[in-house]
Amino acid sequence: MDAKTLHNVDYLMLLNVFALTAMGVVLIAGATYGRPDMEGLWVRQTLWAGIGLTGIVCCLLIRVEWLLKCSWFLYLIGLGLLVTVFYMRPIKGAHSWILVSGFPLQFQPSEFMKLFVILFLAHRLARHGGEVKGFWGLFEPLLIGAIPAVMTLAQPDLGTAMIYAPITLVIMYVAGLHPAYFLLLFSPFLGFLGISSSLLHFLIWLVVLSAILVYALYREVTLPVFATFGVLNLGSYVGLRVFGPGMWEQLPLHWKNRIDGYMNPTFDTQGVNWNSIQSKIAVGSGGFWGQGWGQGTQSRLQFLPEVETDFVFSVMAEQWGFLGCVIFLGLITFLIARGLIRAQNSKHLAGAMVICGVMTLYAAHVIINIGMAMGLLPITGLPLTFVSKGGSFMLTNLLAAGLVLSLCLHESRNEFRD
């Protein structure tokens, strides 16, 4: 890497990523302090962070357009790995990890698959020149995101499966998807209003659905797409009306418990809602300054579970207080905003889609994890960007940052081509 290349690296973004990664290591060390059963977790996190930061350097040396051209191959490899996990021994009841025989190593393919989906979507949509219309133009990107999402859901891993939806939709929006198509995409979910016993709710559903369909016709949505969503809406209404109660009974018990707990926070405080209640106590007990590194009743006395992964933000609030949370949110917000500005100023559609996909990945994890920790969203077991323990998760975050830094570097030198 020559001096000219080093001069064009976005050091503000790189330092921001380094600061967030360091915060995660320090926080995990504090969350596991005095816990013999978690001894050494922060060391392993540091090792994965080191590997990830090395990966960023490798990304800077690689032309992202090369990755885009072979993204179909990466996507197929990812799908193959998602199939492989079902032949592995389950961990905590989920077939989510691949165990490397002969080595104390395991990795989670669904994490890396998120990057493969971003690259493949950007490649396919850029080939169409940003045109997302017509039946296949709409459903091809949806299918690219839906296949790994369904496979991840079957592991079962609801939290990770959810992330593919915002990534896919944001990339489609950047590619030029008209708002009429977005309204059509969300319209089948309005069926829950239609099956309500309230006549008012039914009328609201009917009026809103009619307005969406009329607007779609006005915007000259193609007939096959319009007919498909008409059938989907009818099927959604009939299916929920006829099979809704039975579908609820077929859901896994822990999914039903989490939904019941979210809808009724006072329900089963010693069981279903225990984690949520302890998390909110931890968040509130930190005050402005926090109780100090390695301190805090909820985490130290083990009232709060999964302190190094799902509820790491609760530990952040408890130990570092409001001030520590503001610093973290300020850093991650700056990173996402800087990425989006870079995407907006990009001259290349594929590059803009990759950057927006990565920033959506970061933002979705932050919003869902913090919402879960504060009781604003149901518990889904989704880790916090750059902070939660997990080698695959940390490596994915840092490689994603490396892709963005590489795109910014090569575009600043006029070396990027769609």
Strand content: under 5%
Q: Report the order of strands and helices.
A: HHHHHEEHHHHHHHHHHHHH
Q: Total strand count, please?
A: 2
Shape, principal axes of CA atoms? globular
Largest sheet: 2 strands, antiparallel
Mean pLDDT: 85
Q: In which range does the helix fraction lie?
A: 55-70%
Tell me the span between the first and last alpha carbons. 23 Å
**Secondary structural class:** mainly alpha
Strand order of the largest sheet: 1-2
Please state the CA-atom Rg, rounded to the nearest Å: 23 Å
Low-confidence stretches: none
Give the number of helices.
18
Give the arrangement of secondary structure elements.
Layout: H1 3-8, H2 11-31, H3 41-61, H4 64-69, H5 71-84, E1 98-100, E2 105-107, H6 109-127, H7 135-153, H8 158-174, H9 179-186, H10 191-194, H11 199-218, H12 223-250, H13 253-263, H14 274-285, H15 297-300, H16 312-345, H17 349-373, H18 391-412
Antiparallel strand pairs: 1-2
Helix pairs in contact: 2-3, 2-16, 2-18, 3-18, 5-6, 5-7, 6-7, 6-8, 6-17, 6-18, 7-8, 8-17, 9-11, 14-16, 16-17, 17-18
